[in-house]
Every structure is written in C-alpha cells, then in structure tokens.
Design brief:
Length: about 400
C-alpha cells in the first residue's frame, strides 16, 4: 500500500479538513474512516485484527502508572491520573501490621457493648442490608513529605486516593442492633496483626459513616480492607479501620494507642495536645507542571487536585509569581463533598524563573494555610494534619522542581 499519507508526521491531517476528520471518526463517512490520516502506525494497526477479548483487562503496554511501595505504605501516582477516581490497584495503602488474608466465607463482625442485641454478622448479612454508594477521598493524616527539590507529586502527598465505595450505612446497622441512645463512642477494631483500634464518636455513625465491601464496583482490594472496612468520609484515614472485625458501643472513648501516643498533635506550647483531630483540612496540589517535567515557554494549563474533609471545595487559587498575585482556577465538575476535585488555570510562561502555588478554600470558608501559619498555630513537633500550600519552582531551563524551601524550619 503506497499511500502518500503514510509518511506524514503524527497529528498531521494530510490535507483533510478538521470537519472531515471528525465526521470520519464517527464512521459516518466510510472512505475517511478507512484511510489512515496520521502516518505509519495508524496503517499498521489496520492491517490485521488485534487480540480478542480476555478475562481480565490490562492497561495498555504504553501506560505504566505505579505506586511507590515502602515497607509500610505505597503512594498513589497523582501525576499520572486523570479525572478523580483512583483505580483500585493504584489506591494508596498504609498498614501497620501487613495485609491479612481473610476468607470472606469465614469473616465475622461482632457488634456489642451498649446495644440491645449484641450480634455477629457474616459478610452475607452485611451485604443483605440496603446498599449505598458514595464517592469520597481517603487520606492518611501523615500525608506530607517535605522532601528535596527532586520530589514527585506522588511523594509529596500520594497518601490520598478517591473511590466509589459501596456498603451499608453504619446508622442502619446501629439501628439493627439497637444501639443505646446514651452511647457516645464506639470502638472499631481490625483483624490484622496490628489489631488497629480507634474510638469514633457515635455522631459520625449517625452522620455518614459506612461499612464498605466494594471499591469502584468490585470487592475491596486486600490492601484496602477486604472483605469489609469502616469508612469515615473526610476523616483521617487511620480511623477508617480496615479488616473490621469488632465494634463496641460505649459512653466514652477507649483511649487506644492510636489516639494517645499516636495520631495526636502536640501544640506549640509543648504542654497541650490536639486529640481526636479527625477532620482532614482543605488542601490542594498542582500535579502538572510538576517535577520531573521540563517545560517550554508559552501557554500551559496548570492542573491539580483539591479536597476538604469538611465538605465541598468552593475555590482554588493559583499563583504563578511565587505568591504575589493569585488567580481563581476553574473547578472541573463534578465538585462533590469530601471529594477530590480537579482544578485548572491557563498560564503563559515567559521563560523567566518563577514559582507556581495553589491554595484551596472549602465551603466552611477555611483556606489552606502557608507553612509558616500552620507552624505558628500547631508548633514544630506536629507530624499529622500538615496541609500547607506547596509549590513548584520553574528554573531558567524550564526544569520544574518541588518547592522544598517553602517547607523549611
Ligand atoms: N486494621 C487496620 N486498619 C487501618 C490501618 C491498619 O494498619 N490496620 N491503617 C490505617 C491508616 S494509618 C490509614 S491512612 C488507612 C489507609 O487506608 P488504605 O490502606 O485503604 O489506603 O487505613 C487505616 N486503617
Ligand atoms: Mo494513616
């Protein structure tokens, strides 16, 4: 086939008008649909049939997003994703005692304490309740690496992901067991080697807490709590106990290790501590341009993610001059409560070194703070709930580097 168009560079229209190409793409004009318009490769894939259907889908061989596993966590490659749902196999994982292998047919959840009917539920029992689905983010409260300039978005704050979770509202289950109206807290306990235990206010049980068994339409991944976990939308990931095996209803918190020695925030005065600091504050990150990209002068679209555990994101601002001026970014629908939302803003890079920043505001009016403001409020010893404004610097050569200097001190 000596088609003169075959040597055209990718992206060239080969003399066709834009409208002709669009019509061709719908298959409405068959002569165009069978004519390769963008060179050798388009011709090759039409010469013989490709592979047939298979049991389990696989990503294109040309796409290779990867988490970044350490011994205790693996991070979502935020820079590689589009839209707002995290594929289940790229959801971050954080575990304190490894991933237990739990046989769903032998799984049991005990609910007892201040209830009228202490009950053991099987997985089938839990699935028999009316189901509900909800899209929300999950984020580890330790989700900040201050790092070096050579830090990817994934490493800055890849301990957050977003899922459509399916399960039963915890309120439904609490009503089923007859939880006492005097109950104020419940303990959630995991079936892993860490036996993760956290005390959760009953008000969350009757607000939006869920027991979930599905993730983006499929069974939970083992690392994310298979066969069932607690889900507390907008709250620090740690309290969403995975591999949930026991709930004990009580009138006071249990003061477990994870809410006394860990997951508390020492304040600046060195004497007081923030405890039960459950809510994840508003935050954002620019995911493109970001390290390790090298950009050219000219027009770019700044793109990123913003989220808040308190509700909807109402505004994201970006600065392209190191924080001197801010412009309002466009929020890309859907803008859901307690959910990752995409933002974007056009930017013309003149070629002089600069710094890109983003800051998110949520429906409560809370705005993501600078590192200095956060440090002044919380003191220097806090390790959790660090949501400072972060930045990317652009050097003379167009090299994009993480603004690690902003997070010094
Ligand atoms: N049983 C149990 N639940 C757990 C943990 C754990 O180690 N064991 N890790 C917690 C922490 S610290 C976080 S941030 C979230 C992470 O959820 P993911 O691994 O599904 O992303 O699970 C929480 N639930
Ligand atoms: Mo965590």
């Amino acid at each position: 086939m000596a088609d003169s168009r075959q040597s055209l560079p990718i992206g060239s229209s080969g003399g066709l008008t834009r409208r002709e190409i669009l019509v061709g793409a719908t298959g409405a004009v068959s002569t165009i649909a069978t004519t390769p318009v963008s060179g050798q490769q388009a011709l090759e894939t039409t010469r013989r049939p490709g592979r047939g259907p298979n049991e389990l889908g696989q990503r294109s061989q040309f796409v290779r997003p990867r988490r970044d596993p350490s011994t205790t966590s693996s991070r979502t490659p935020l820079q590689d994703l589009r839209g707002t749902l995290t594929p289940a196999d790229l959801h971050f994982e954080r575990h304190h005692g490894g991933v237990p292998a739990i046989d769903p047919d032998r799984y049991e959840l005990l609910i007892h304490g201040m209830v009228e009917r202490a009950t053991i539920f099987t997985l089938a029992d839990i699935k028999r309740f009316p189901a509900t689905s909800r899209i929300c983010f999950l984020e580890c409260s330790g989700n900040l690496r201050r790092g070096t300039p050579e830090t990817l978005p994934q490493m800055v704050c890849g301990l957050t992901s977003q899922t459509e979770w399916t399960g039963v509202r915890l309120s439904t289950v609490m009503e089923e067991v007859g939880a006492s109206s005097d109950a104020k807290w419940f303990l959630a306990e995991g079936q892993d080697a860490a036996v993760m235990t956290r005390s959760i206010p009953m008000s969350k049980a009757f607000d939006d807490a869920m027991i979930v068994y599905a993730q983006n339409g499929d069974a939970l991944m083992p690392g994310n709590g298979f066969p069932a976990r607690l889900l507390l939308p907008g709250w620090e990931g740690n309290a969403s106990v995975k591999w949930l095996r026991r709930i004990e209803v009580a009138d006071q918190p249990f003061m477990t290790r994870e809410e006394t020695s860990k997951y508390t925030d020492p304040l600046g005065d060195g004497r007081t501590v923030r405890q039960f600091s459950f809510v994840m504050d508003a935050r954002s990150i620019i995911t493109d341009p970001a390290y390790p990209r090298i950009i050219e002068p000219g027009w770019h679209e700044i793109r990123g993610l913003a989220w808040s555990g308190r509700g909807r994101i109402t505004r994201v601002e970006v600065s392209t001059d190191g924080g001197a001026n801010w412009q309002i970014a466009e929020l890309q629908p859907p803008v859901l409560e307690k959910a990752h939302v995409r933002f974007r803003a056009p930017w013309n890079w003149t070629g002089t070194p600069t710094e890109l920043l983003s800051r998110a505001t949520d429906e409560t009016g809370y705005t993501q703070p600078t590192w200095e403001v956060l440090r002044a409020a919380r003191g220097p010893r806090t390790r959790y709930h660090q949501n400072p404004i972060t930045s990317w610097t652009i050097g003379e050569t167009g090299q994009v580097l993480f603004g690690a200097d902003r997070l010094r001190s």
